[in-house]
Specification:
Layout: H1 2-58, H2 65-94, E1 138-139, E2 145-146
Antiparallel strand pairs: 1-2
């Protein structure tokens, strides 16, 4: 009979431990989600302030470029913090860290900052972004897209002229 109670006690302790671990994990997840929400709210407030300032000063031709650059840098810092917190949450939820995907060709400003896709101004220095010409893709006789440097069509195998 003592053995029976010993096993019951062991199972109860194991269950309590599991519940404690799960609740701790859920609390940590909720904490990170709250931090992300707060960062998103701060970002929204900054963008509103930035937009209001640009709108108010645009008509007067008195745009304070340093103010815009500073606010854009603050927004970028918040975006980076949001990404970091989202990764923390993912690791906490999934339990392992996956290597980040390799970056595609990243456009950079003269100041060295990465440019967001479709950006017309640098988030770091506020300079206008030069628009790159779109890449014109050629087509094979069979209709397949051809990439620069290809010697054979991937679809029909036709040798391509240099």
């Amino acid at each position: 009979m003592a053995d029976f109670f010993s096993r019951v006690k062991k199972n109860i302790n194991k269950g309590i431990s599991t519940v404690s671990e799960k609740s701790s994990l859920m609390l940590e997840q909720a904490k990170i989600k709250g931090q992300i929400a707060k960062l998103e709210e701060q970002k929204s407030e900054l963008l509103t302030e930035l937009g209001s300032n640009v709108y108010a000063t645009y008509g007067n031709e008195a745009l304070d470029e340093q103010f815009v650059a500073d606010k854009c840098a603050e927004v970028k810092a918040l975006e980076d913090a949001i990404i970091e917190k989202a990764e923390e949450l993912r690791v906490l939820t999934e339990g392992d860290k996956v290597a980040p995907a390799p970056e595609a060709d990243v456009l950079k400003c003269e100041c060295g900052a990465e440019l967001q896709p479709g950006a017309k101004f640098c988030l770091n220095c506020g300079k206008p972004v030069a628009v790159a010409a779109p890449v014109v893709e050629e087509k094979c006789e069979c209709g397949a897209d051809l990439k620069p440097g290809m010697k054979f069509c991937m679809n029909c195998g036709k040798r391509l002229e240099d």
